[in-house]
Amino acid sequence: MTTRRKFLTTSMLGSAVVITGGDLLVRNGSGTKNNPIVISTWDFGKEANAAAWEILRNNGRALDAVEAGVKIPEADPNINSIGYGGLPDREGHVTLDACIMDEKYNCGSVMCLENIIHPISVARLVMEKTPHIVLVGDGALQFALANGFQKENLLTPQSAKAWKEWLKTSKYEPIPNIENKTTDKKVEEVPGGPKNHDTIGMIAMDSNGNVSGACTTSGLAFKMRGRVGDSPIIGAGLYVDNEVGAATSTGLGEEVIRIVGSHLVVELMRQGLKPEAACRNAVERIIKRNPLKAKSIQVGFLALNKKGEYGGYALQKGFTYAVKNGKEDRVYSAKSIY
Ligand code: SD4
After folding, report:
1. Whose CA is nearest to atom 9 of ligand 1?
2. pLDDT band for position 189 (50/70/90)?
3. Which H/E stretch holds residue 201?
4. What is the per-residue pLDDT for 175?
5. Atom 10, ligand 1: residue with shortest CA distance
6. Which of 56, 58, 188, 213 is most deeply packed, by most CB within 10 A?
7. Which residues pair with 136 in a beta bridge?
8. What DSSP state is assigned to residue 2?
9. Please, are residues 37 and 323 in contact by the beta-carbon 8 Å criterion?
């Protein structure tokens, strides 16, 4: 299975530079009108950004860019946390969550969708073709099939193997994306270590200065059947306000939902905080609720404002995000509390 470390190596070979992120405004290069930008969570965001960039650099719409961008990891069988190849729930079903939001507060979401490789495109159709915002489970599948999507088996042999391995103990320990302090390896790379899960959240601003976002995931590995995390919940896993900017999240969804994290980050930016400071503030709110628990889980936020400034922050070390604009194509390591 492809690990983030491997992605990182690949990214670096592909000329990405990993440096510690901050509130960055790349002068003459990013954000604002005529300076499109796309940012997304984790190392695999780099490849997703490249697809989004093809649209942005041709003066396309941010909404089209984020949809095209996140479809890359959705279709990649080696990414075991999104779309095809995602790790299943306890009962062996791959269930997908996704949402999308444009510059006019239009939004669409699917939850617990099975057998459809691109839940993000179904979410977009929910937004554009129905009077609703959310479709779940069988209803979402029915809607997808009625709109020409094909049913596919999303459980790859690798994910099936991992699930069978997990069944031996059925121990449910969702400990996401924390660097293992003793071995200096990320948790998922430690043999027998807890399985990892990473969502892609992507935010783009197009050459008209309009912002859109998308978020898609297979959620927590070996979750309870029917469990839905933050990722497809507008305001939790993603929020876009074209007056202010946008934010997205990754990590243990339950903790993000409690604070309506992405909406909180956007509101903090509205009050004047820079993206990184707003993300940090949201992370601190998670700690305030349960300081002990916060030490052993991961949550990361990523945000972009209308000036093209961006930043991320996480509870734990190990959260990375990718940025692409006219001047840079990089993976940053977000700052963290612990
Ligand atoms: C969830 N937030 O389902 C997602 C999982 C995730 O990095 O982001 N993992 O809770």
Report:
1. 198
2. very low
3. strand 200-205
4. 53
5. 253
6. 213
7. 111
8. -
9. yes
Check pocket membership of 60 for ligand 1, CB cut-off 6 A. no
Take residue 168 and report the two structure tokens written for it.
Answer: 């031996």
Host H or E run for residue 271? none
Q: 234 C-alpha to center of ligand 1: Å? A: 14
Distance 334 CA to ligand 1 centre (A): 17
For ligand 1, the distance from its centroid to the CA atom of residue 310, given in whole angstroms, is 21
Q: What is the pTM of this model?
A: 0.88
DSSP of 118-177:
-HHHHHHHHHHHSS-SEEEHHHHHHHHHHTTPPP-----HHHHHHHHHHHTT-------S
Does ligand 1 have an atom closer than 6 angstroms to the CB of 73?
no
- What's the pLDDT score for residue 174? 60
Interval between CA 59 and ligand 1 midpoint (Å): 31
Which residue among 70, 220, 223 is best mutated to probe the pocket of ligand 1, counting the most ligand atoms within 8 A of its Cβ?
A: 220
% residues pLDDT > 70 (the chain): 83
Tell me the longest C-alpha to C-alpha distance in the chain.
Answer: 55
| Residue minimizing CA distance to atom 5 of ligand 1 | 219
Q: Output the pLDDT for position 84.
A: 96
Q: For residue 300, give Cα distances in angstroms to 83, 165, 183.
A: 20, 28, 22
Give the position of tokens 């690990």: 3
> What tokens does 133 get?
């915002």
Query: Which residues pair with residue 311 across a beta bridge?
Result: 303
| CA 42 to ligand 1 centroid distance, Å | 12
Going by C-beta distance under 8 Å and a sequence separation of 6 or more, which residues neighbour residue 48? 40, 69, 70, 72, 73, 200, 202, 322
For residue 198, give the ligand 1 atom closest to its CA. Answer: 7
Q: For residue 51, is pLDDT > 70?
A: yes
Residue numbers annotated as active site: 199
CA-nearest of 155, 137, 141, 41 to 87 is 155
Query: Is the distance from the beta carbon of residue 250 to the nearest atom of ligand 1 less than 6 Å?
Result: yes
Give Cα 75 to chain centroid, integer Å.
Answer: 15
Other beta carbons within 10 angstroms of residue 184's beta carbon come to 8
Cβ atoms of 198 and 174 within 8 Å: the answer is: no
Positive/negative CA dihedral, 276, 282, 288, 292? negative
